[in-house]
Amino acid sequence: MKNRNYVALALVFVAAPLQFSSAKESAAKPFVVVNEDVGVPVFAYDITDRPYTVVGEVTAGIRKATVFSKEASQTKVYRELWERATKLGADAVINAKYGDSHISALSWGKTNATGTAIKFNAPLEAAAATASVAPTQ
């Protein structure tokens, strides 16, 4: 019985680094635009300088682990919204909103967040090139 426990524990230690290495590789994807405050392309306002198409609404609920845990920070909330938006194929999230933590039936505290996932119509380089070309008459 003890041997099986040791084997199971050894498998956990061997498999854990493999799981974390794949997460680091997927995080290396560059963003089209970035909110420098939080490091992901999630904004509390609308983007008006580039045309975009709305992909859909994203929602997230961030729970506290215990009653003594801190409330979710803006960075954590925005990263959670961005994770859900990437599953929709979005380039950014606009109009991100979140409130204070409240106690729910299944957690010691939960912060609800919403935002609008968008996809830009033209790449950033193409939009910059079009804006820099002066019309000729």
Nutshell version of this structure?
It contains three helices and four strands; from the N terminus they run αβαβββα.
Characteristics:
disordered C terminus; 4-stranded antiparallel sheet; 4 strands; elongated; 137 residues
Structural commentary:
By secondary structure, the chain is of the alpha+beta class. It has a domain at 32-122: Hypothetical protein apc22750. Chain B (Translation Initiation Factor IF3), CATH 3.30.110. The chain contains three helices and four strands, in the order H-E-H-E-E-E-H. Strands 1, 2, 3 and 4 form a four-stranded antiparallel β-sheet that branches. A hairpin with a 2-residue loop joins strand 3 (102-104) and strand 4. The longest helix has 25 residues, at 2-26.
